[in-house]
Each structure stands twice: as C-alpha cells, then as structure tokens.
Amino acid sequence: MTVSARAERDPLIRITDLSKFFGSVIALQGVTMTVYPGEVMCLLGDNGAGKSTLIKTLSGVHKPSQGEIEIEGRPVTFNSPKDALDAGIATVHQHLAIQPLMSVTRNFFMGREPTRGWGPFRTFDLAFAETTVREEMQKMGIDVRDPSQAVGTMSGGERQCVAIARAVYFGAKVLILDEPTSALGVKQAAVVLRYIAQAKAKGLAVVFITHNVHHAYPVADAFTILKRGRSYGTFRKSELTREQVLEMMAGGQELDALEAEIKEFTRSDGDGGVAPQTSKTVRREQGVKP
Ligand SMILES: Nc1ncnc2c1ncn2[C@@H]1O[C@H](COP(=O)(O)OP(=O)(O)O)[C@@H](O)[C@H]1O
Ligand SMILES: [Mg+2]
C-alpha cells in the first residue's frame, strides 16, 4: 500500500496526548498513537513502561488523566470495560479473565449467553453454544473435542485462542492483546500469531503487546515503543529492521538495569552526590552513550 493511500484512510483509533497518573506515579505521559483498520500495531517496551496502562485506558478499565481517545473519528469516554466493548474494543488482558473450572462454552459466551424459549421459559441454548464454539475454534485450527471440558484443562495457547475467538465472534473492531504469547512455547505462540494475522486480514485493528521481537516482527505493520510512560514514537515496519527493533528494546533494558544498580549505590552510600559520577563511569565502561 502506498503512503498516500494510507494517509487517506481514517484511523480506527486515535490516541492524542494521553497521560495517566496514579497519585504521584506517572504511568503515561503525552502518548500519541494511531491505529488503522487491517493493521497490527505492536506496543513494545520494558516492564513498567506503561504498556498495560495504555491498553487499560483504551479498554475502559482506567480513565485517562489527560488526553483524548477517538474511535472512528469520534471522541469517546469509557466509564467501564463494557462501554469499550460496546464500541467494538475487545481486550484480552495480560492476566486472562477466564474461569478455569468453567467449560469452554460457558467461558466463550460469558455475559452474552444465547438463550432459547421465551419469557420465564428462557434457558441457555447449550446446543447452539457448543456448535458455535466448535466451529469458531475450528477456524483457528483448534479441534475442541469436548466443548464442555473445563477451560483450565486446555493449553495456554488454546486458552488465549478461546479469548481471541470470542472477541472476533462478537464483532470486535479492535482487538487488544496484552502479552498473549509471553507464557507460551514456540508452537503455541505460532498458533496465536497466526490468529493475529487472520484478525488483521478480516479488517480488525490489532494492538499487540509483547516483549519478544521475534513474535512482534513477523505480524506487525507498525511499532510504538514506550519507555517509562513516554512514547519513543511510532515506526512503520519498512522504517525498521528486526535488529533495530531489538536494539531499541535491549538498549532500554540495559539502561534500566544500570540505573537500578546506580540507585542501589546511592542508597548504600547514603550520599546522592556520588551518583552522577558513578553513572557516567559505568555508562562509559559498558559502552553506552551518555
Ligand atoms: N493501578 C496502579 N496503581 C499505581 N501504579 C500503577 C498502577 N498500574 C500501573 N502502575 C504503575 O505504572 C507503571 C506502568 O505499569 P504497566 O502499565 O503495568 O507497565 P507494563 O505493562 O509496560 O509493564 C509502573 O510503574 C506501575 O507500577
Ligand atoms: Mg504489562
């Protein structure tokens, strides 16, 4: 796709100058990001960079302290995750909201149970629900032999897929995934990545959070890199090589480790004045630009 064609399209999500404070903690500051339909935006950044906070704000869990969120050109204010869901934003959070003892079918339809019958005779339509779950999971290449089996008995990758399939089935426009592959083995991660590609092909906008550049690079169209609540900017894939992405992420991690060490020095010395000099020396020794 050419640059001009992309510019003419309207973004599905536009986040402008977003900040989020928790008391004195600045979790996000002045973050701006646009995501287009049919594209995967990868959110990269170290632990504590603000990735989860950004998507929780986007999905109605947190209210922004400052800034604006627009969906399809309209400013939105979400008072709850349900508001975001109604606007077509489906989020699979880092700590999956799944009931391990509940069946696959019940989890899939949780909060949106299909019913049959009328008035006081309305009951959960189990036959429809089970057929649907089997079909939807089949589309992702997962063979659910028994939809009444507890979700807790499925593998991590399959559980992620239940959550994703559910979002797509209920008509999400935006799919947000917070580290869906981080606890998975190579094969299972591949299943989830393939499904991200499928969701994108269906025209959904995907916001994909990961620590792993090898998971991010194959599926991403663009990268937004967060560091301590601030955005390093958004880069198109064509602007960055895999190595450059890796460098940005690894560089950040190294600096963080370094700074944590320096803080420890200052604490044990009980003398803040030593810190800047120590910092410079260590940085030079490690070959990090000051
Ligand atoms: N509910 C909260 N209350 C206070 N501080 C929070 C809360 N949620 C996140 N933070 C802080 O905000 C920062 C960003 O956290 P988070 O968004 O979880 O980072 P990431 O997902 O990139 O690892 C961290 O310093 C974290 O401690
Ligand atoms: Mg997180």
Automatic annotation (TrEMBL):
InterPro entries, alphabetized: AAA+_ATPase, ABC_carbohydrate_import_ATPase, ABC_transporter-like_ATP-bd, ABC_transporter-like_CS, P-loop_NTPase
GO molecular function, one term: ATP hydrolysis activity
Chain positions covered by the region annotation Disordered: 267-290
Gene source species: uncultured Truepera sp
UniProt cross-references to PANTHER family, sorted A to Z: CARBOHYDRATE TRANSPORT ATP-BINDING PROTEIN MG119-RELATED (PTHR43790), SUGAR ABC TRANSPORTER ATP-BINDING PROTEIN (PTHR43790:SF8)
Transmembrane segment boundaries: none
Residues spanning the signal sequence: none
Keywords recorded for this protein, A-Z: ATP-binding, Nucleotide-binding
Domain ABC transporter stretches: 13-253
Protein name, UniProt field: Inositol transport system ATP-binding protein
SUPFAM superfamilies per record: P-loop containing nucleoside triphosphate hydrolases
